[in-house]
Design a protein that fits this description.
mainly beta; Lipocalin; Jelly Rolls; 3 domains; eight-stranded antiparallel β-barrel; eight-stranded antiparallel sheet; globular
């Protein structure tokens, strides 16, 4: 990935076959089902899932959560925005990386990463220490839960005060494929001028909106390039924070989420939702442009229409491999627009609307054989 050092920090239905009870779980009804001891465990478990799912949906659409979609405006209006991001030691002998997450109202989390940053030295299994931080005057003071590791953010540098106050400057990484031009023969799905290639597509200010839009054209195997940007929502949490997704063949989701700095999960950015977590969390901070580069190999069928192989997918998030030749061994993933049994190798590309203002640009693909 390209790296710039920053010296100035300003710069449904539920059914139980065991007991025959069927009901609809929506909002308070789901909560009632959870509390009713007369219902069997199967129904109560489903109700819990539905209740939490609806809670997530409601949170995602909460208009009271302050949201920024313009980095310049965020920088002007929220002093925390300039401090979130990545910090990296310049000591090659013992590299240390830090990812600082803004949580709103002067509250922060920082992850201290032994070996560097994800994709640049830190690998799964290396030490990863959580520090909690808060404003204290013009500085941000951090400490772990045991108070054995402390740090502070001052003048654009992250200082590990529990060691020798080693200054780590803030850096900005960009994907090496950002702005990649479509090669000859590529199908351009969005170039900033029109959303005509999409059903329910909407373009604004040269960007494609996350409107649950679907390509009008169906594809089998392909290589896809797509650029996306999540909003800055410091007070939001979990799946309510910059959520969208790219569904391949309308069935299998590569997740989009502001999961910058968080642990590796299948429902975080880079994950194949409900199938596989990514090899690394390569998510960049919110309002940074990011890239997906995906090689999708469609399912195969014999002459009688019987599936002979599941589809497979290789994914790079911000230029770093996060899935390699992964088998997608189910008909669809969570919230897919197509949920019928898999019977064809063809399908559309679908961009999910999760009530967060995620935007897209520079989308093109090359059809495979």
């Amino acid at each position: 990935m390209k790296v710039n050092v920053i010296s100035n920090w300003n710069n449904r239905i539920m059914e139980c076959w065991n007991c025959g009870i069927m009901g609809r779980a929506v909002g308070s009804t789901a909560w009632t089902a959870i509390r009713r001891p007369s219902l069997c465990a199967s129904v109560r478990n489903i109700a819990v899932v539905l209740f939490l799912s609806f809670a997530t949906v409601f949170a995602a659409g909460d208009k009271n959560i302050k949201t920024w979609t313009d980095p310049e405006l965020a920088l002007k209006e929220d002093p925390d925005f300039a401090l979130q991001g990545e910090y990296l030691s310049q000591n090659s002998a013992s590299p240390v990386g830090v990812q600082v997450i803004a949580l709103g109202n002067g509250q922060f989390e920082a992850y201290l990463l032994a070996g560097g940053l994800p994709g640049a030295g830190w690998v799964s299994g290396n030490a990863r220490t959580l520090l909690k931080g808060a404003r204290a005057g013009s500085d941000i003071l951090f400490a772990d839960t045991n108070k054995t590791t402390s740090a502070k953010l001052v003048n654009g540098h992250f200082l590990l005060t529990s060691t020798d106050e080693i200054p780590l400057p803030r850096i900005v990484r960009t994907s090496p494929t950002l702005g990649a031009k479509p090669p000859q023969g590529a199908i351009v799905l969005f170039d900033g001028t029109s959303a005509d290639k999409w059903e329910n597509g909407k373009a604004a200010n040269g960007l494609l909106q996350a409107t649950s839009c679907t390509t009008k054209q169906q594809f089998k195997s392909y290589s896809l390039h797509l650029e996306f940007r999540t909003p800055y929502m410091p007070l939001a949490r979990g799946q309510a924070r910059g959520n969208s997704g790219v569904y391949h063949s309308g069935r299998w989701e590569t997740q989009i989420l502001d999961s910058f700095g968080l642990e590796i999960r299948d429902n975080h950015c880079g994950g194949i939702y409900s199938i596989s977590k990514p090899l690394l969390n390569m998510c960049l901070p919110p309002l940074a442009w990011q890239t997906y580069d995906v090689d999708f190999k469609a399912a195969t069928f014999d002459a009688a229409g019987k599936r002979t192989a599941w589809p497979r997918i290789t994914v790079k998030l911000n230029g770093v491999l996060v899935h390699e030749n992964l088998e997608l061994s189910k008909d669809y993933t969570t919230s897919a627009p197509i949920t019928k049994p898999l019977a064809s190798p063809e399908g559309p590309v679908y961009l999910q609307n999760h009530n967060n203002p995620v935007v897209f640009r520079n989308i093109w693909l090359i059809e495979g054989k």
